[in-house]
Prior knowledge:
The complex is a heterodimer. Chain A is 72% helix and 0% strand. Chain A is mostly helical. Chain A starts with a helix and ends in an 8-residue tail after the last helix. Chain B has helices at residues 11-30, 32-60, 83-107, 117-138, 142-160, 166-197, 202-208, 213-230, 239-245, 248-273, 280-302, 307-322, 325-329, 336-368, 379-382, 384-398, 404-418, 425-447, 460-475, 481-487, and strands at 64-67, 78-81. A two-stranded antiparallel sheet of chain B has the order 1-2. In chain B, helix 4 (117-138) runs parallel beside helix 10 (248-273), helix 5 (142-160) runs antiparallel to helix 6 (166-197) and helix 7 (202-208) runs parallel beside helix 10 (248-273). The chains are: A mainly alpha, B mainly alpha.
Amino acid sequence: xxxxxxxxxxxxxxxxxxxxxxxxxxxxxxxxxxxxxxxxxxxxxxxxxxxxxxxxxxxxxxxxxxxxxxxxxxxxxxxxxxxxxxxxxxxxxxxxxxxxxxxxxxxxxxxx
Amino acid sequence: xxxxxxxxxxxxxxxxxxxxxxxxxxxxxxxxxxxxxxxxxxxxxxxxxxxxxxxxxxxxxxxxxxxxxxxxxxxxxxxxxxxxxxxxxxxxxxxxxxxxxxxxxxxxxxxxxxxxxxxxxxxxxxxxxxxxxxxxxxxxxxxxxxxxxxxxxxxxxxxxxxxxxxxxxxxxxxxxxxxxxxxxxxxxxxxxxxxxxxxxxxxxxxxxxxxxxxxxxxxxxxxxxxxxxxxxxxxxxxxxxxxxxxxxxxxxxxxxxxxxxxxxxxxxxxxxxxxxxxxxxxxxxxxxxxxxxxxxxxxxxxxxxxxxxxxxxxxxxxxxxxxxxxxxxxxxxxxxxxxxxxxxxxxxxxxxxxxxxxxxxxxxxxxxxxxxxxxxxxxxxxxxxxxxxxxxxxxxxxxxxxxxxxxxxxxxxxxxxxxxxxxxxxxxxxxxxxxxxxxxxxxxxxxxxxxxxxxxxxxxxxxxxxxxxxxxxxxxxxxxxxxxxxxxxxxxxxxxx
Lengths: 112, 497
């Protein structure tokens, strides 16, 4: 097994684990962490793709590296926005739930 | 124009992106009181630029291109505007302008009043949505489009929770979670495309793609991500609370334009990047999900107690119609062009009609102090203009003539019959009946007798803006053949280079 294949498999596993977490965990903070796991997996895949250039005689292909830097910045910004929203929601409501039913119910009644 | 690869008028594409972007920076720099003025003053220029782009596309009969930095793909990035880009740019400019003037009542900062954070946020985010949509409509590179898609999300989420109540924050957070899944899934697809073909330029990819497993995987990932952002059933759960809780001006832009941004990218992906692939099964799946969205969204709309939630569920249903374009415009048949016209007509008619509906709902909620449908008895007598707008906008949503909605559905029926796919007529017609049902639910109590008192006088200017948008939605019903020919400019046909 070459290092590239290993890295690819790890990337795929990270995406899979992250997706599972994103779907099953109800808490938004856990969802956000799961999103970051998926992100790490995707960035790893970009890293392997950068090795394509090696076949053409270059040490690496610079384009995926440029893309991955942009991707990381965007993911970081997204996480910051999400954390800010979670904090604000916790401050306003005293709890953090995304269940729309909970908001439809009158106050004080079974809010998680 | 000295730069290689740039066509006449290509520089307009750069200006169209730079103008709202410069507006954002200027608004940040000189502060809350001026942000409103910057937005309002920039709207006529944005509209003029969109019209100029359409003029050049029409003159040359070909997409206009700007090669950034004079570098051509695969090394550089192209901006490219074809028929559908130009039309979407004009529609965006009109609706953003309408939203900006409509929002003055709520977010203006007159002299002597302390400027508020929510006003500054609103004006900046409105311009940011405009900038992001412009990049989406003229972007020619899949990664560039990813960044634009993210900008669009980051601009749309704050608009949902602009008033800071807990339930709006929860709605915004749910929206963000769906959007994050969508963006990362799209990005993985982009990575696979680059890995397979070494380019992300749409027209270069279109020449190179073959039906290999990696292409199918990439396309599936990107489509799934975009569907989450477009709120196609069953990924629509975030949309109703988010769109219903935003202020009316923001709801109109979110429902009328923002979901169309990601839909536009689904069109780009399947019709521009992958026209060479055999896509019958994919088209059937997308059409099936669209049909389910039409039925489910309409039934949910029938069951809502609040007007804004009803309109938001109607958006879920109308998004379903958009996805019927995939089975009806696929391939290089005589009927594909009809299906294509139908899809684009539906995008435009829904954008204008839905923006007008949300504007009217906003006027109504301000004037009555609530938007409970059960308590609308007699409301049409005190708000005649608003209910006229709702009725006329409803005409387009139902698909009754004369309206853009009728035009779109009529073309859809024609394309389904001509292509022998008669089963797509069932959701199209059933959705129209259900839409008639939910519009009736609003109008019937309003037109009945009842005692109702106004909490505040409706603003004539806001009612006029809503009515103007509905009239545009109706006028689309009379679109000439030249308009549909314009939409064909730059559309690759399967099997041809």
